[in-house]
Amino acid sequence: MKTTLPVSPTSRAQAPGAPQAKRNRFGSIGAASLLACAIGFTPALHAKEIAVGDGSFKCLNDMVKVRHFYVDNLLGNRAATIKVAERGKGKYPPGSVVQLIPGEVMVKHPDGFNPATRDWEFFELDVSKDGSRIRRRGFVDVVNRFGGNCFACHAKARPEFDMVCEIDHGCDPIPITRRMLAALQKTDPRCSAPAALADDDRLALKELDEVLKTMTMPAGPK
């Protein structure tokens, strides 16, 4: 019996020359993403932004897997990030990276940088064997390739989960199973030695493609 779980999604502006929106596995399953939201929020002046660029993101296999998602820390405090992830609740430290699929990721900035998103910044990536390229990034207004807004989904997570979506965290569920996710995670093109796909993985990816054709993302706040 398949288990449905809420998958997490993840600009300031679309990068020049970025391809037109299209259905792409890496582009976006995002954990129930969000409709463009016109709420602007000015970061607090006392909190310094963490520098994040294309080179900040890596192959999933080079991160640490906790249950069904991956974590890292851009400031080198990986142990603290892992501790919160393994506990399943609590506030993630600055620099934390939380990623479910190759094409979407969230990064935690220092306290007070953006209270509206509890200091998380959302990213949509174009990934290839050459690495990652940021396609979109931002706080309350990142819209993925399916017209879903990342903040709107993650904002539904209960406070003790610090905007991170898992199956019982309060986020809207979407019809993507962990079996599909596991297969998708194996296809990260940035990995020098990607995991081999079993026949069941290939079947799961075909099923995922069919789901993506009909999946409707929840609307974000107006």
TrEMBL record:
Protein name: Cytochrome P460
InterPro entries attached to this UniProt entry: Cytochrome_P460_sp (IPR038142)
Chain segments carrying region Disordered: 1-22
Organism per entry: Aromatoleum tolulyticum
Top-level taxonomic group: Bacteria
Sequence ranges of Polar residues compositional bias: 1-13
